[in-house]
Write a structure and sequence with these properties.
Blueprint: H1 2-12, H2 16-32, H3 34-37, H4 52-63, H5 80-83, H6 105-134, H7 138-145, H8 154-160, H9 184-201, E1 204-205, E2 208-209, H10 216-240, H11 246-253, H12 255-260, H13 271-277, H14 283-304, H15 309-323, H16 329-338, H17 352-376, H18 381-419
Antiparallel strand pairs: 1-2
Helix pairs in contact: 6-7, 14-15, 15-16, 15-18, 17-18
Subcellular location: Endoplasmic reticulum membrane
Pathway: Glycolipid biosynthesis; glycosylphosphatidylinositol-anchor biosynthesis
Protein name: GPI transamidase subunit PIG-U
């Protein structure tokens, strides 16, 4: 019986390396056949902030001893509103990346990032399994393991990539997980409880005192490292921009450009169409409304998902991807890659097949609508804007359903722990 179960588990294991090799081949195709695919001009991939052509423009201006954010004016009144001003709106440190665009360094970096995400997910999955077994809920893990059969299908592999997950089991410190998704507050409470137990009972494990679960040292080192890295980056940017207006000019041309939504060229978002239609008198008001909308979501989500910082970061990235002025498919790829970290918790998420079909449909219709509008002239901006609206709606449904599934999973765990 055990041998049959092992064979069955082997059959249901995801063919990770098969999909990894397929992804590498697909990426090489995108690198070596850019002229045929013409991805550099696709609004779904290239935005005013991420455009490689604009990066080349900034690089050319730098080589000509000019500021990479130098403004220019076009005499053609038809395109003046779209292209007037500076072309490049990225960090000045990225100008050196242009020399590496034809190399495989970026390809290797993407592959290493994928391997790191997979390694992190496997570690989180081990913590999830061990914690369930320590609480006497090993059967729940066996049941959730049945969902790994989804990984054998293309749809399952598209959504999760590999069977990796982790869960914080409860708000109650007695059932708190000790893995990477546990918050410092919960670990600190467990540390205080263990300290009290050790002082009262004097527990000893194998002749040694029990190891503490919480330490402020990694937290402090993390913030110190973030501060040093941020300061180092700002110093480099300041040195680069010392002859071009200083670091204030960089902030104005990068973050200021994003916040004011000056470029109304089409993209897969919805703000470009809205600000193209809104009256100039109300423009500042709606800019405040759209940007503050993100701020209003931070605190409620942090309160409700305070026991799940990793999943909270995923939700924040998804919301920013939906509401940012210049989105691209790269923004969605970032948070969809992290969705695999919560595979067990989101196994019962509803509308997964509907969302998969919706994303595929939008990916196919968006180039068609753009071609009908821009090149053939048989459509209008509403055609392409409709695909952007559908894309945003599918992302909203994904966020809502994933949060709902996560909360239901936590509620289920709490009930099972309370009954045992």
């Amino acid at each position: 019986m055990k041998e049959e179960e092992e064979k069955k588990n082997m059959k249901t294991k995801p063919h990770f390396w098969r999909w990894a090799v397929a992804s590498m081949i697909f990426r090489l195709v995108l690198i070596y056949f850019p002229k045929n695919l013409n991805l550099a001009t696709r609004p779904e991939v290239s935005t005013p902030v991420t455009s490689l052509r604009r990066l080349a423009e900034g690089y050319w201006l730098t080589q000509s001893s000019m500021s990479p954010y130098a403004e220019f004016h076009l005499s053609d009144a038809l395109i003046l509103n779209v292209l007037e001003g500076s072309m490049y709106h990225g960090s000045p440190l990225l100008l050196s990346v242009l020399e590496l665009k034809d190399s495989l360094i970026i390809f290797y970096a993407d592959f290493i990032s994928a391997m790191l995400i997979r390694a992190t997910g496997l570690k989180l999955r081990m913590a999830y399994c061990e914690r369930l077994k320590s609480l006497g809920l090993g059967k729940l893990f066996e049941i959730s393991g049945e969902y790994s059969a989804l990984m054998s299908s293309p749809i399952g592999s598209f959504w999760v990539g590999c069977s990796i997950s982790f869960v914080s089991l409860s708000d109650n410190p007695d059932y708190t997980c000790n893995g990477p998704d546990a918050t410092p507050r919960k670990l600190f409470l467990m540390y205080k409880k263990d300290e009290a137990d050790n002082s009262s009972k004097g527990r000893v494990v194998n002749g040694l005192s029990e190891q503490k679960n919480f330490s402020w040292r990694p937290v402090g080192l993390f913030f110190v490292w973030v501060f040093i890295w941020t300061l180092y980056t700002l110093v480099l940017c300041g040195i680069f921009m010392r002859n071009y207006g200083g670091i204030s000019e960089m902030f104005n041309r990068t973050y200021g450009f994003i916040l004011t939504v000056k470029d109304l060229s089409p993209n897969i978002g919805v703000l470009w169409y809205f600000f193209a239609e809104v009256f100039e008198f109300f423009r500042d008001f709606f800019l405040i409304v759209f940007h503050v909308n993100i701020l209003f979501m931070i605190l409620p989500l942090a309160i409700r998902l305070k026991h799940r910082p990793c999943f909270l970061a995923f939700v924040y990235m998804a919301i920013c991807s939906i509401l940012k002025p210049y989105p691209s498919v790269g923004d969605s790829a970032l948070y969809l890659a992290l969705l695999a970290l919560f595979f067990n918790e989101l196994a019962e998420m509803q509308f997964s097949f509907f969302l998969f079909c919706g994303f595929v449909g939008v990916s196919l219709l968006s180039p068609v609508m753009h071609n009908l509008w821009i090149w053939r002239g048989t459509g209008n901006a509403n055609f392409y804007f409709a695909t952007g609206m559908a894309y945003a709606c599918f992302q909203i449904i994904l966020v809502v359903e994933s949060v709902s599934a996560m909360l239901n999973h936590d509620r289920k765990i709490r009930k099972l722990v309370a009954t045992t």
